[in-house]
Write a structure and sequence with these properties.
CATH architecture of the largest domain in chain B: 3-Layer(aba) Sandwich
CATH superfamily of the largest domain in chain B: Response regulator
Number of strands of chain A: 12
Number of helices of chain B: 12
Strand content of chain B: 15-25%
Shape of chain B: globular
Structural class of chain B: alpha/beta
Shape of chain A: elongated
Order of helices and strands of chain B: HEHEEHEHEEHEHEEHEHEHEHHHEEEE
Structural class of chain A: alpha/beta
CATH topology of the largest domain in chain A: Rossmann fold
Number of domains of chain A: 2
CATH class of the largest domain in chain A: Alpha Beta
Distance between the termini of chain A: 61 Å
Oligomer: heterotrimer
Radius of gyration of chain A: 28 Å
Strand order of the largest sheet of chain A: 8-9-10-5-11-12
Radius of gyration of chain B: 22 Å
Chains: A alpha/beta (589), B alpha/beta (382), C mainly alpha (347)
Number of helices of chain A: 23
Chain lengths: 589, 382, 347
């Protein structure tokens, strides 16, 4: 299915949506209205939880804030619902911003629990703020008016609701396919991965958080003006959980899944309500929730990824266009060969009582390949983590390109020109090769959230995509750029990581055991690639165990043992050094 | 593609062909689950008793469709729309929680279907285009009767503790409204949740102001919790409450601590203790018999009787409306609404009802008596 | 606030906190072995109280029907799985464990109800009836997705909670119950009466947390059970059966939930949906204790109880807002102090 065909199907679907109220019975229109409203909140949650990996139970609270804001403006104070929309968005996003700023640095369970905490706190506030009708709520909320037309009929507000839903879907799809969207999709790979690409994980999380709240705000505004009456009830913990269920049923990582999930949950509840009394009179009210939960559990057991990914497996693969040559992205000025690039000076790192890195000093000069070798546990990966900012230094100094980077966070060091790969490959297995490499170009591009959503970033995207394709071709993976990264064998995954690091246009390439798990032919190709990179004036620092690989490739070697530097020098000198043979090569050769 | 498929499924599931029926269709919504269920389930049983008592009007059969709103106002709204738009009901009756009832009322007003609310409704309707009435005594009246009794008992300082929900609000507002000059003063507004395990903090706060009496704004079993704590803390004053506390589990859990509490309630609670010429006596006994027959157990609370009275109002009005329109038509809905708003001196088990446009409630002081919990049973205290 | 009032509030807070502590310990138990945040724990505790009340009223509780249905379902699923795996020889044992034992228990309770047994017997019957519930639910609901992500397990846990609440409403009605206290003694501490029942709860919480702490940290079986949560495959390679570990954990958990319910029922009115909020506040205590520490969870839960007590004195309308809002700075403080563990990286 090509892009044009997909667009045709989407247009047909939208057309069906448009004419639906004119041939469905009125209650179905009512149901569709509610589905649309819930879908907006569920899409927000799909982005936050499915894409961003932040489990949030508090979406209902944001919907509530928006609903109460607009109700207060329009019902209690008599202004236009559009002003209510403005206040709803401002209030919800502001509160989300504050909450996110305070809580998004929490890890794992703490973060999820914090969403429960503020979700409940906000809900309990609704019933207690005087002027908001307490528990009896606010009635007589005016309908939305477009010009002189009042949206009082079901089908009128249907068009507004689904118009907004379709617009949101399109914008979200665009967003996820753009620079900021890729950064969001990278969040689930862990903070270390994200920061090593020069992306501030906290900022992207905050952005996703506020975006989800914004969508919740749209949902709340529409809800208030659809039901024309609000009370705290619909914004409690139970509803927060229901939104999460909708996102999960639809497919947690899929934006369309939010719509599908909302539809399934609402329709299921409706059918259960209709058919259960036929099976069990009398106790039908309580059995409804039991039947609904049982079906939900069954569903999660069978299709735990959600419906949309499940169905997508049956559809033909979309055919995507290979990036065409485009204007080049700005390139960094490489330092002159031989100049001091990285200076590690008496660096120390302790883990409790264990001294992992003990007073290690060495230098890396521009244009050379430096190898770091040593037995297992010598501290090589720890040094890498120290100089890329993934670990804090306990003592000593590190300077890069003349500037001290000892206490800089990972993200800054990455942007200064240090790109790295990892000992245990950190990729996004469900993203394509091209998308994974595009992550590396993040720091070289600048399009923001809005530009991505509105597709104003086409020129920059084209440049970035072409640059990414070139890097893929450089490492030899340019044949199938749209293959999923998780399908590659380990050796090619390492190459992909290198391609991603190259896409960042670094001054220093830090490779952690790039040849591990590679077969002989692959190692030869990798060595050739690294030599070619050195010819392009790229500086490379690598850790390796394979002696033959290291000795024939690098210019100089630094040997570590038990956290201390043993010696350094040319490969031939190192090979003959007795101490190295003792410690590393197992006695005199 | 996916949207198409889901839309088709929606269509297949929701086609409902309807035509004007000969029978009268009623849509009844109540909370059979969720935190309103302790009131909603009795409403359901009350309707069952009502159907047992009078199953048809002037030969026209009555079809009752019952839906559960799970104590959620959104669900109540959807149910109301479903009943009107899909099942084409002639009248709506419902529901157990105030917010859900208000939500349903808004739908009834929008789609022009008469509605009899069985929960108290706040505010005043638009007299020119009113479609709903409310059966229960308004919270303000409930509390006024209790306040009158408090004044009679020479109580001056009153402490209040109620649920943190709509009912707690209603009772507190009613109490504040009954203050009137120097007679009684409501000193505290403590709240607790139905699922709370302890109200010690709240009771300490109340006792710190040395009230003469405490007014309980809770309902059901958990209405007993403040009483238990008051007894623990050695409170010696009187206690008062509303009909929401009339519940056998409240009596059981409250035990000794609940003895002596006086509540305002509809006469049906103490039907057999009423004088023979009381308007509610015969009807209440008939209600009890019907309830026993329909539900297999005796009636034990005040809520089920509201549905019964709602049914009485509806059937009386329907009998008159049938003369001018056929069920299943918009004319019938209009006629039914007009007749309901024309109800005059209709005796129910809770009150004598008089409705007219411009107000939701149609009860007066005759609708309430004071009952006192004595030795585990409610005694009439005129 | 005078010192007197503060003392009363503190003791009251500890009394509520003790209730939360029991539930917190049980939650940690199940989490450390199965990675499931077992929200229905509170619901099972509530079921126990309601079952006991039903037995007190000489009625057969709906729990019996629930156990019977669950037993049939679990047995069916296990049989199908065994036959599919070609291990049909294990069938008789499976039927014994999953079907026969629970049904025997149900039968005993059904028979005993007719004889109006005394309180101690009723307690035993209640515990017997409740204990199979969690392991059976584990077999039916969690075993098929045992290797799923924590989010998936949590969502299923929540769905299960809704189902149990619905069943509870159906079986026991919307009104609450209180059972007779196990002891009517009461003591005086500093002029404030503390009921014997509360002391029992505190003692039970203390006992359980110490026992479980010793068991899981110092015995081989305990460590084996913990291993299955950390790495299922690794545990299997060491000869530990994750499935059996899960069953043991759920069995113990169910028993603890039952004991909690029995102890709590005389001091609090328990409704069909009381389990949720009690479980939630207990879970707060669990988080404060670091999710894997028993004494920590118990202390955290006590803290929540005390916080709630003082908050309800300060402003009863806003007490829940206060309790949950204060949780956030506590979480922040804990997060910065906690060791920075490897994030669970998901696909």
């Amino acid at each position: 299915m090509t892009g044009a065909q997909t667009r045709l199907v989407a247009a047909a679907a939208v057309l069906c949506l448009l004419i639906a109220p004119f041939w469905l019975n009125p209650f179905s229109v009512t149901l569709l209205n509610y589905i649309g409203i819930y879908a907006l909140a569920a899409i927000g949650l799909a982005l936050l939880t499915g894409v961003g990996g932040i489990i949030s139970f508090g979406q209902a609270a944001f919907v509530g804030i928006a609903a109460y804001s607009t109700a207060w403006v329009s019902a209690a104070n008599g202004y236009s619902p559009w002003l209510g929309l403005a206040l709803a968005i401002v209030m919800t996003c502001a509160i989300a911003g504050i909450l996110g700023f305070v809580t998004l640095r929490l890890q794992g369970h703490f973060l999820s629990l914090s969403t429960v905490a503020w979700g409940l706190a906000i809900y309990f506030l609704f019933g207690n703020i005087d002027g908001l009708g307490n528990y009896n709520g606010i009635s007589n909320i005016p309908p939305i008016a477009i010009g002189s037309l009042l949206l009082t009929e079901s089908w009128q507000i249907y068009l507004l609701i689904w118009g907004i839903v379709v617009a949101v879907l399109i914008l979200c799809y665009n967003l996820l396919d753009s620079r900021v969207g890729r950064a969001m999709r990278a969040l689930r790979g862990g903070n270390t991965l994200v920061e090593s690409l020069g992306i501030s994980a906290f900022r992207i999380k905050l952005l996703t958080f506020v975006l989800a709240a914004f969508l919740g705000a749209l949902s709340g505004w529409l809800y208030a003006h659809l039901s024309r009456f609000i009370s705290p009830g619909p914004f409690d913990a139970g509803m927060g959980i229901e939104y999460l269920m909708m996102a999960m049923v639809g497919g947690a990582g899929s934006v369309l899944g939010g719509v599908v999930g909302a539809a399934i949950v609402t329709l299921l509840k409706n059918s259960v309500q209709d058919y259960l009394p036929l099976i069990a009179r009398g106790a039908s009210g309580q059995l409804e929730i039991v039947a609904f939960s049982a079906l939900f559990i069954l569903f999660l057991q069978r299709a735990r990824q959600g419906i949309v990914p499940f169905l997508a497996g049956f559809l033909p693969e979309p055919k995507l266009a290979v990036p065409q040559p485009a204007a080049a992205l700005p390139r960094r000025a490489q330092p002159a060969p031989g100049k001091l690039l990285l200076k590690v000076d008496a660096v120390e790192r302790r883990f409790g009582g264990l001294v992992a890195v003990n007073n290690v000093s060495f230098e890396v000069r521009a244009g050379e390949i430096l190898g770091l070798i040593g037995p297992n546990g010598a501290g090589k990966s720890t040094i890498f983590n120290l100089l890329t900012g993934a670990l804090r230094v306990n003592g000593g100094e590190i300077a890069f390109a003349g500037r001290p980077i000892t206490h800089d966070p990972q993200c800054h060091i990455a942007r200064a020109g240090v790109a790295r790969t990892f000992q245990h490959v950190k990729l996004r297995p469900r993203m394509s090769l091209l998308d994974n490499v595009l992550l590396g170009t993040y720091a070289r591009t600048r399009s923001g959230l809005l530009a991505g959503a509105l597709r104003l970033d086409r020129a920059e995207e084209a440049s970035a995509r072409y640059a990414a394709l070139c890097e893929l071709q450089r490492v030899g993976l340019g044949e199938k750029p749209f293959e999923l990264a998780g399908n590659l064998p380990l050796g090619n995954q390492r190459l992909l990581e290198i391609a991603r690091a190259l896409a960042a246009d670094p001054a220093l390439l830090v490779l952690d055991e790039p040849a591990a798990g590679l077969r002989r032919q692959e190692k030869l190709r990798l060595a050739e690639l690294l030599r070619a990179l050195r010819k392009d004036n790229l500086t490379i620092l690598l850790v390796e165990h394979d002696m033959e690989f290291v000795m024939t490739l690098v210019d100089r070697i630094v040997v570590l043992d038990f956290g201390s530097k043993l010696c350094e020098g040319e490969p031939a000198a190192i090979r003959g050094d007795a101490r190295v043979q003792e410690a590393y090569l197992g006695g005199v050769a | 593609m996916r949207k198409l498929m889901s839309l088709t499924a929606l269509l297949a599931g929701l086609m409902a062909a309807t035509a004007a029926r000969a029978e009268i269709t009623i849509g009844f919504v109540t909370s059979l689950s969720g935190n309103g269920s302790s009131i909603g389930i009795p409403y359901g049983k009350g309707i069952a008793a009502a159907v047992e008592y009078r199953g048809e009007v002037n030969g026209e059969k009555i079809r009752l469709i019952q839906l559960d709103d799970g104590s959620d106002p959104s669900a109540a709204t959807r149910n109301a729309r479903k009943l009107i738009e899909e099942d084409k009901v002639d009248i709506l009756i419902g529901t157990a929680t105030a917010p859900s009832t208000i939500a349903m009322m808004a739908v009834a007003n929008e789609l022009k279907v008469p509605m009899i609310a069985v929960s108290p409704v706040v505010g005043a309707p638009n007299a020119a285009d009113q479609w709903g009435i409310s059966v229960p005594q308004p919270a303000g009246l409930l509390v006024k009767i209790v306040a009158d009794r408090m004044k009679r008992d020479h109580m001056k300082n009153i402490g209040y503790i109620g649920f943190s929900d709509a009912w707690g609000d209603l009772v507190y507002n009613g109490a504040k409204a009954a203050e009137g000059g120097e007679d009684i003063k409501i000193l505290t507004n403590e709240r607790y949740a139905r699922t709370d395990t302890s109200v010690t903090g709240q009771i300490l706060k109340i006792m710190a102001v040395h009230p003469d009496a405490v007014l309980i704004g809770g309902s059901g079993t958990q209405g007993a919790l403040p009483l238990l704590t008051l007894a623990e803390r050695g409170f010696k004053g009187k206690t008062y409450g509303t009909v929401a506390l009339v519940n056998p589990d409240f009596v059981r859990v409250g035990g000794k601590a609940a003895e002596g509490i006086q509540v305002s309630a509809g006469p049906v609670i103490v039907a057999e203790q009423l004088p023979d010429d009381h308007f509610a006596k015969k009807l209440a006994l008939a209600f009890r018999a019907a309830y026993q027959k329909a539900n297999g157990a005796p009636t034990t609370d005040g809520f089920s009787a509201y549905s019964f009275d709602a049914w009485l109002i509806f059937t009386e009005a329907a009998a008159r409306a049938l003369k001018s329109a056929k069920p299943g038509t918009t004319d019938f809905r209009k006629a039914l609404r007009d007749e309901i708003l024309n109800t005059k001196e209709l005796a129910g088990v809770h009150a004598v009802y008089n409705f007219k446009p411009g107000a939701y409630h149609g009860v007066d002081d005759r609708s309430l008596v004071i009952v006192k919990l004595t030795n585990g049973a409610w005694k009439y205290e005129p | 606030m005078t010192p007197d009032i503060a003392a009363i509030l503190a003791i009251d807070g500890i009394a509520s906190g003790a209730v939360y502590a029991l539930v917190a310990i049980g939650t940690v138990l199940i989490f450390t072995v199965t990675r499931v945040i077992f929200i229905p724990f509170g619901d099972i505790a509530a079921f126990t109280a309601l079952t006991l009340a039903a037995l007190d009223a000489k009625q057969l509780p709906g729990t019996a029907a629930l156990v019977a249905v669950l037993a049939c379902l679990a047995c069916a699923m296990e049989s199908v799985a065994l036959v599919r795996a070609g291990a049909a020889r294990a069938l008789p044992r499976a039927i014994l464990c999953y079907l026969a034992l629970p049904l025997i228990v149900v039968g005993i309770v059904w028979a005993a109800v007719k004889f109006d047994p005394p309180l101690p017997v009723r307690l035993v019957l209640t515990l017997m009836l409740i204990t199979p519930i969690a392991p059976l639910l584990d077999r039916i609901v969690f075993r098929p997705i045992a290797d799923g992500s924590v989010l998936l397990l949590l969502t299923v846990s929540v769905a299960l909670h809704f189902a149990l609440v619905g069943l509870g409403l159906m079986f026991f009605g919307p009104e609450g119950v209180r059972t007779e206290p196990l002891t009517s003694l009461s003591t005086e501490i500093g002029g404030i009466t503390v009921s014997g029942q509360t002391v029992l709860i505190l003692l039970a919480a203390l006992l359980f947390s110490v026992l479980l702490f010793l068991f899981f940290d110092f015995t081989l079986i305990g460590k084996a059970l913990r291993a299955t949560a950390i790495n299922r495959t690794g545990a299997r390679l060491m000869g530990i059966r994750p499935a059996r570990a899960g069953t043991i954990a759920y069995l113990l958990g169910s028993l603890m939930a039952g004991v909690s319910g029995i102890l709590i029922a005389p001091v609090n009115t328990i409704f069909y949906d009381s389990g949720f909020l009690i479980g939630l506040k207990a879970f707060v205590g669990v988080i404060v204790g670091g999710m894997t520490s028993y004494p920590g969870a118990a202390l955290g839960a006590l803290g929540v109880g005390i916080l709630e007590s003082f908050a309800s004195f300060e402003s009863s309308t806003l007490k829940d807002v206060i309790v949950f809002s204060l949780l956030i700075p506590i979480l922040l403080w804990l997060s910065f102090g906690a060791p920075h563990s490897d994030e669970e990286i998901e696909e």
